[in-house]
Amino acid sequence: MSQTISISTVAVIVSYNPDLIILRKILASLTAQCPIVIIDNGSSQSTLVSLGQLVQNMNSVELIKLPENLGIAQAQNTAIRHITENNTAVKYILTLDHDSIPPSDMINCLETTFETIEEQGVRVAAVGPALYDPRDNSLLKLHKMKLLFFPGKIKPDKIPTKQLAIELDGLNSSGTLISVKAFGIICEFDSTLFIDHVETDWCFRARAKGFKLFATNKTRLTHHMGDDICYYWFFGKRSMPYRSPMRHYYLARNSILLQKRDYIPLSWKIFNIPKLLFTFIYFGFYNKHRSQQRKFILLGIRDGMKGVTGKSAPCIQ
Question: For the packed helices 245-259 and 266-285, what is the interaxial angle rounded to 10 degrees?
């Protein structure tokens, strides 16, 4: 049975020097599900040439080239504006990283989940899939307030089989189906953050305006969280994403910036402090790039306290 291409959803893929083998797999799956806009965030000229060749015969794929890396938030905002200004029939935007591979049923599953919940009178802002990282064969945990309202995490496979979806406090930026109508009320992604915690900020703004967020385990997105996987022991073997010193600069800086925003829940602010401290200790003293990691995390904390925003990470010497 042939699959019907959605006319309600357009996928936005932000690319930055992507792995073209993975991107080809993404397009092979998505072109059968919905139209696609690839917005390139200042990739190298050789990559742009290869991207152009990859999509030149794909009628449902549009390539937008930004002159430089403007950050994930600004790239997504630019693409969403372009889509909504040129296609008023679009109801949903799917945001996707250039290394996340969707299954063949994902768009239909997310649309059905969204509409089923909305029919119950719930103000839904976005719905996401379960995220699967093939590098350590694991499902990424979902963000949900629990234990005296402190941020907690729940494994997608712990969601009861009969339950369509679970309400969350935050969704990952990759694989999330966003309501165009809700996006207009909540407003755009905060481009001053550049990268990291962009989705955290938007999700909490959505919740502050009375919207709800959900994830379903009925479909799973193959997603690479961070640059790699690293392991540590804390009452058992645990894993977490490895990020470069530059990414940790933005993570630390934006964590401090979010601490100052009144719509960010107090519970998140309290929980974020030991989490940031753990990041500093682990990567700053037990990582092979520990000197650079310490430097960039501390610079991020300093700049966050000073209110520095935008693309501001120092160069790695």
Answer: 160
In tens digits, the chain (317 residues) has pLDDT values of 446 788 899 999 999 999 999 999 999 999 999 999 999 999 999 999 999 999 999 999 999 999 999 999 999 999 999 999 999 899 999 999 999 999 999 999 999 999 999 999 999 999 999 998 887 777 877 877 654 555 567 778 777 778 899 999 999 989 999 999 999 999 999 999 999 999 999 999 999 999 999 999 999 999 877 666 665 655 566 666 778 999 999 999 999 999 999 999 998 999 899 999 999 999 999 888 899 999 999 999 999 999 999 998 776 54
Numbered ranges of CATH 3.90.550.10 in the chain: 9-222
Residue 179 · residue 124 · CB < 8 Å:
yes
Distance CA 222, CA 203 (A): 22
Six-digit token string for 95 = 């945001």
R_g of the chain, CA atoms, integer Å:
19
Tell me, what amino acid is at 253? Answer: R
Topology of the domain comprising 9-222: Spore Coat Polysaccharide Biosynthesis Protein SpsA; Chain A (3.90.550)
Phi first, then psi: give them for residue 174, nearest 5 degrees.
Answer: -100, 125
Please, where are the H alpha helices in the chain? Answer: 20-30, 45-55, 72-86, 106-118, 180-186, 198-208, 245-259, 266-285, 290-306
Reported residue count of the chain is: 317
Cα 92 to chain centroid distance, Å, stands at: 16
Element (H, E) at 12: strand 9-15
